[in-house]
Amino acid sequence: MELWYSEKHTNNVKFSLKVKEHIFSSQSKFQKVDIFDTYEYGKLLTLDGLVMVTERDEFVYHDMIVHTAMAVNSEIKNVLVIGGGDGGTVRELVRYPFVKQVDMVEIDKMVVDVSREYLPTISCELDNERVNVLYEDGIKFVKDKNNFYDLILIDSTDPIGPGEGLFTIDFYTNCYNALTDKGILINQNETPIYDEFFKVGINSNRKLKKMFPIVEVYGANIPTYPGGYWLFNFASKKYNPIDDFNEDKWNSLNIKTRYYNTNLHKGSFALPNFVKEKLEDG
Ligand code: SAM
After folding, report:
1. In terms of Cα–Cα distance, which of 45, 50, 87, 48 is closest to 65?
2. Which of 59, 138, 219, 266 is most solvent-facing, going by the fewest CB within 10 Å?
3. pLDDT category of residue 85 using cuts at 50, 70 and 90
């Protein structure tokens, strides 16, 4: 009998992958954690029945959440990753020799443990000496931090369960305070294809605009996420992601990527009209 992983994206849309084997399933204190081995996308990590990463297309998300910011400010030394327990974001960050310290604050140790065991190509830099893995609630962690991080990457689940507070104005205010005066914050900002996701994205964008002088949205094609097209917020105290983008400098670092490149960087901020209009109208 064929085995399929199936995820409801809306009341009228389901996304399915044919599965070789359901390798791992357990309920952590925070969420249901599953690993599937799929035919087309390799190993798949799901939390509460939602795709987090697959071996085949994780590079798109991790390239875009990390390199877009790193190419705008080449003096980033201290980075905070909130969530990101699969390790993909950390893996890309440590490729920059000038990054001194990466604090990854993941609420759920089980996500890190299963990623270490079943997703070694993604979790491979979690033991890097510049990386501190902290098992804490990111919402609490940022509360008392002040003027320390050059970059905060919110690599979170959707605003349900433990991820809910990561989309609030209080949390963004604490992140703002935790950042240096040149600080950049990136968050994953849902798909614009389906209204119920985009509502969350528009809200998050509006809240960030209340406190950061620069907030721009960019997108990437991620086949296993709802709509296949995902947005990110780029919020910054100083740097504009296009005007302050030094492509020659980034290219001189010679970092080999599978998705990100400097032309794509510029293109990713050129949004389709329906996205621009909805973001402007709120
Ligand atoms: N790339 C994925 C996406 O966009 O779907 C997200 C990656 S997943 C590894 C996100 C992680 O955020 C999960 O492991 C989850 O446990 C963690 N997380 C959720 N709420 C959190 C919180 N309040 N503090 C720290 N980590 C949190």
Report:
1. 87
2. 266
3. very high
Q: What's the pLDDT tens digit per position in 2-14?
A: 999 999 999 999 9
CA dihedral 158, 60, 229, 179 (to 10 degrees): 50
- Describe the crossing of helices 195-211 and 273-281 by its angle, rounded to 10 degrees: 60
Q: By alpha-carbon position, which residue is closest to atom 3 of ligand 1?
A: 52
Residues with Cβ within 8 Å of residue 232, at least 6 apart in sequence: 64, 65, 68, 186, 187, 188, 189, 217, 218, 219, 220
- Indicate which residue's Cα is closest to atom 11 of ligand 1: 83
Nearest alpha-carbon partner for 96 in 80, 76, 82 = 76
Q: ipTM beyond 0.90?
A: yes
Residues with CB under 6 A from ligand 1: 30, 47, 52-53, 61, 82-86, 105-108, 111, 137-139, 155-157, 162-163, 165-166, 188
* Residue whose entry in the numeric block shows the structure tokens 């909130």: 82
In terms of pTM, does the model score above 0.95? yes
Residues 6+ apart with CB under 8 A from 268: 64, 68, 218, 219, 220
Best of 106, 189, 229 to mutate for ligand 1, by most ligand atoms within 8 A of CB?
Answer: 106
Domains of the chain, with CATH numbers? Answer: 3-54 (2.30.140.10), 57-281 (3.40.50.150)
Residue type at 210?
Answer: K
